[in-house]
Amino acid sequence: MLKNKTKKQTTEKEGINPSCGCAADDPTTSSGEQTSANMSDSTEKKVVNSAEMADSTPAADDKTVADEATAKEEKLTAEVAEWKDKYMRLSAEFDNYRKRTLKEKMELVATGGEDVIKAILPVLDDIDRALAAMTDAKDVEAVRTGVELISQKLNDTLRSKGLSEIESVGLELDTDFHEAVAKFPVEEERKGKIIDVVQKGYKLKDKVVRYAKVVVGE
Q1: Looking at domain 164-218, which of 3.40.190.10, 3.40.50.300, 1.10.1670.40, 2.30.22.10 is its CATH number?
Q2: Of 36, 101, 135, 205, which one has the fewest beta carbons inside 10 Å?
Q3: What pLDDT, in 10s, does the model give residues 184-218?
C-alpha cells in the first residue's frame, strides 16, 4: 500500500494522469502557446494596418496634388480675366483718343485760318475806303501814301501771324526756298546768284508756303 501511494505521487509529479496513463496538461506549455498565438495575431494586425496606411497614403498625396492643380488653375483663370479686362479698357481708351484727335484735326483744318481772316478784315476795310477815295481824288501823292500805309499794315498783320518773306536777291540759289524760272548772262562774280525776283516767296514760321520764283545769273 505504501508502494502504491509513492508511485501515485511520483506519477503526479511527472505529470502523468494515472487514470489514462497519459501526460497531464502542462499549464506552462499552454500559456506559452497562447502567448505565441496572441503575438502572431498582433503582428498580422500590424501588417494589415501598415498595408492600409500604405494604401491610403498615395490617395492622400493624389488629393493634395489635385487640390494644388485646381488652385493654380483658378489663379491663372483669375489672372487671365484681369489682363483681358485691362486690355479691353485700354483698347476702348485708345479708340476714344483716336476719334477725339481726328475730330480735333478736322476742326483745326476747318477753322485754322479763322484768326488770320479776322486779323486781315481791318486791312480790307482800309482798302475799301481807299478805293472809294480814289474815285474823287485829285492828289495822286495822297493816294500813293494811303496805299503804302495799307500795304504796311497788311504786312505787319501777316508778320504777326508768323509769315515772313524769303530773302532772294544777291544770294546763292537754294532749291529749298527758290525756284529758278530763268537765267541771265552776268559778270563772273554774280554767276550762280539770284539777280531778280519774279514772284516773292513766303514762309509760315519754318514752313515754306510759296517758293520764290527767281532769275539766276550765268
Answers
A1: 2.30.22.10
A2: 135
A3: 898 888 888 999 999 999 998 889 999 999 999 98
